[in-house]
Amino acid sequence: MRFIQLIALFMGTIWLNSAWSLTVSGLVTDVDQKPLSGVMVTLHNPESGANKEAATITVFTDAAGRYQMQTVDWVFADDVQLVTKKIGYGLATSSRSQQGTSEVQQNFVLKPADNIAGQVPAAAWLSQFPLTDRGARFIPGQCAGCHQFPSDQVKAFAAPLAKLTETERKQEWLTVTNDESERVLEKVWRGSIQYMRSMAFHFSADTPVRWGLDPNGEQFRALLTAEYSLFSDHEEDIAATALTKFMQLDFTTMPRDAYPAADNPLVPDAGLTIKEYDLRSDGWTREVALTAESDYVWLVEDNTDRIGRLDPKTGRVKWISVPTSGDQAQGPHTINVDREGYLWITLEESYALARFNPKTEEWKIYPGFGEFSIAHDTCLDDERYVVTDVQGHLWLTLIGQNKMAELDPDSGEIWFYDMPHQEGETSFHAALYGCVMSSELEKVWFTQLNGIIGSIDVQGKQIETASAFEVGQIPHRFAIDDQDVIWVALSGDGELLAYDTIGNKLVGRYRLPDANSSPYSTTWDSVRKVVWISGSNADVIYRFDPANQQFHSIPMPRKRTFLRMIDIDRKTGDLWSTYAHLPVGAGPNFAVQVQFSDGVYPQSGGAAQ
Questions:
Q1: In sequence order, what are the beta bridge partners of 490?
Q2: What is the pLDDT of residue 164?
Q3: CA 219 → CA 200, 215, 371, 425, distances in Å?
Q4: 87 and 155 housed in the same domain
Q5: 171 and 236, same structural domain?
């Protein structure tokens, strides 16, 4: 009997140790002992990727300065590592106490920071770029379309330029010297823009040219010219001029009041929680998609020809290669899901489209879109599903040819339609991009990075232009709501547009909290009836509520995140995105989950507070 009791005690001890639950909480105040709200508190997982769960978990203090993380089961009390973050404050002191293995309490006192240069996102350094200057708007619009600007590399490049205007020459030479310095500065910035024209065809400086192009071939040389490039001669000219005039050269100092966007209110949710998942890959993991049937999160890694299946319960990723023949790269780029649970993935490098069955892991490849067509976006409805039109056909944008493609997914037959562009634009520079479909499934709407928003009637094939844009305004991915209003963010001007597609009129124009945040995409939340916007250059997700026309913020736990698409878990209402910074390896490669406790989704309210 005693032996049995010992075994039972031993087994109970094992069970208790393997199912512990840790609560982490505390209070954050300023040096005058006043509570600080909206302070980000991040817990780091010391065994991320090797054990289970996320790499970090982040919560925010409430109006009383308190925070709490409950049922954390992937870290022992002795291993708890917490970091606080609030722009305008630095750590003064912290104190900690423990109650056995089940509870950790850590309080923080923060002090005002006179210099916030090390705290602000890249966007903060563009505050001197005027909203009325098209060259100044081109910088957050196009330069920050692929990576944050100014990145750390750009800061390192720009800082020595300040020496060009520092001279100890005699007074009579000062004017001449400064004039010459301005000319040199412009040449240097123009050279960097020309370099970026070339780098647009690489994943990084150390990777081969994309799309199978021969770097010594005629086609590649043509793509480096202004006529076929993403940057025209005019854009190069005005951008170099703007960088010369407005680019700050001292990145060591910024006063507290120089970045008012940091004071934009948080999303009002007591259980707001952010989890980051380390993908442990140096790849370009661009986007995510979630099916309604599964708890997995699906990722595309463009430069490695594979997709990933992330299990949020373990933090593990299963990588699945895209089938190919020979050495032809595939380049999985955009990933979305339809109502049957299939994943639709555009293959940039092979100019094809793939359909993937997550249950059987079977692929179907649709080729035939044409040389250098670059299939980009499949058309989505108001619930972010890939949807077919009234004829059962799927539509997608071809960025390389400025064409819409209509695909019969059963037969594989494809029809092509030339899209209009502004006078003087080339097909490639117009850059046909995003795609959504009306609720009646009879009209497809599209954006061009350097051109227009327009539509095509799926039956009569009539094409209409809704709005044209100036240089540097740049509409990327956009969304359509249940009232057939399209929501378009302009990355250059930092504005959110609402366009009524039924009445054919602009019904709203709203300035984002940070005009230089370079919004990459909008996502319509069909349950909450709000718009989510990825602030790619500001490490933030914005929420816009059309009912009260207010913006709220969700800041990310780290810098250089460069958010692209935002998808919504249709069961829980969680937001999912990736940190997709270019060049490859220059920024964090994580998947990120934002949880709420608002209870508006069937399974929502599961955040860790």
A1: 475, 495
A2: 57
A3: 15, 9, 12, 19
A4: no
A5: yes
**Would 220 be classed as within a structural domain?**
yes
pTM summary value: 0.91
Round to whole Å and give the CA distance between 384 and 76. 39
Top pLDDT among 12 and 592 is at 592
- What DSSP assignment string belongs to 233-273? HHHHHHHHHHHHHH-----S--BGGG-GGGGSPBP--TT-E
Among the candidates 250, 270, 294, a domain finishes at 250
Domain of residue 223 covers: 151-250
Tell me the pLDDT tens digit for each residue of 146-184: 889 998 878 887 777 665 554 433 334 334 345 555 666
pLDDT recorded at residue 1: 39
Tell me, yes or no, whether 392 lies in a domain: no
Q: How many domains does the chain have?
A: 2
**Whether 108 and 16 share a structural domain:** yes
For 440-460, what is the HEC assignment? CCCEEEEEECCCEEEEEECCC
Question: Are residue 178 and residue 86 in the same domain, yes or no?
Answer: no
Report whether 143 contacts 239 (CB < 8 A). yes
CB 526 within 8 A of CB 481: yes
Considering Cα of 331, then 335, then 338, then 342, what sign does the dihedral take?
A: positive
Q: Which of 224, 250, 276 is the last residue of a domain?
A: 250
Q: What digits encode the pLDDT tens for the residues 427-485? A: 888 999 999 999 999 999 999 999 899 999 999 999 999 999 999 999 999 999 999 99
